[in-house]
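Q: Hi! Curious about what ATP-binding protein looks like structurally. Here's the sequence.
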Amino acid sequence: MPRRTTCVTPSAARLTDSLRDIGYDFSSAVADLVDNSITAGATEVDVLIEFEGESSKVFIADNGHGMTLNGLTEAMRFGSRRSYGRGDLGRYGLGLKTASLSQGRCLTVVTRTSNGRRVIQARQLDLDLVAEYDDWLIIEPDRNVAIERARNLLEDAPGTVVIWEKLDRVLPTNNASGGWARRRFETLPQKVIEHLAMVFHKFLSGEASGERLVITVNGQKLKPWDPYARREMETRELPKQRFEIDNGGIAGTVTLRRFVLPGRDKFSSINEFERLSGPLKWNRQQGLYIYRAGRLVQWGGWAGIRSIDEHTKLARASVEFDTDLDEAFNINVAKMRVSVPGQLRQMIERPINEICSLADDLYRKSTNSKHERDRSITDSFSGGSDVGLALKGAALEVGEIRAFKKIAAELRKSEPAIAKSLGL
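A: Let's find out. The predicted structure is below.
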């Protein structure tokens, strides 16, 4: 006799509200949309972040293969039924919705598939409508300025444009048009640039797929940020290693690559040394860089193998796996956190300690060399404070004191020993 069953449909209003808080910040939410563009075969992705007070918007446009109406409808479903193949950057069928709604209450997708026919489809998911009816509703939106812009972007070729509106998680509830709101909003493009340049550096360089992905943010073309400074002559790479780990009875391969970056005095320039410090700066950027299908999902720290240390800050290592090991690495929905499997942690502990030992030695040698150089500079400039005063006086005389202060500030940053000896 068949069992009695009851369909327990979750409250759309309650669940969509809770799904807004699963770990995205603004930059990681944009990155999740770029994942979709890459999966769709895009070679160009344009991100536009535009402040207009309460009407502020974000556009993510690509030249991928686009979607049919059925495909678009399915993409707007929470937990879409599409299957993901090996190498796909998607995972749970949630990213488009959860990433977008983590920042705003309204998501619109405009898409076109065919080169021959200019059939453009649009669907919208608005949390205000979902809350009103407490149902899983999407609509065909009325045409407005934002949708017309998206349609114009798709006039010449297939692709997809995602629009975020009602940005309640980005703008303050009160005075969304005020100066504080504008200043906060205007910091977002640079944060997104730094994040995408790091997360997708293998796609931007062509290392991931053989073809270079082009990403622009408010018109600025991104340059890949290579954590390993492989263009620096003094960067040292140790032999690549591969490990097999068990994933439910199926063996998967993980690749480990280890690098020791040069000390500050061995970099090609001070600017390049500062650039390679990364968004988290040197100490917190040391450690493992974990890639899933070429996409960086976690960076910094040693995954419990050892602790972060000033003396090992020049050590960085990549851990690369494909999507067949997703369960083993326990990747989260936002694709910002993984758990290194215990069996892999044991395998890589010795190679990691080896690279940290080399980085420690290099750091100490570099530090000793710097101390000797600083002493030499101090001895050479025994009367340096008089020189500094003379330079400052000359700057005052010719009306260039502001320029002098800028030069002094830069000197304190790049050559502190010289600045100190000059009394700056």
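A: A fun detail: The chain has three domains: 12-221, 236-364, 377-421.
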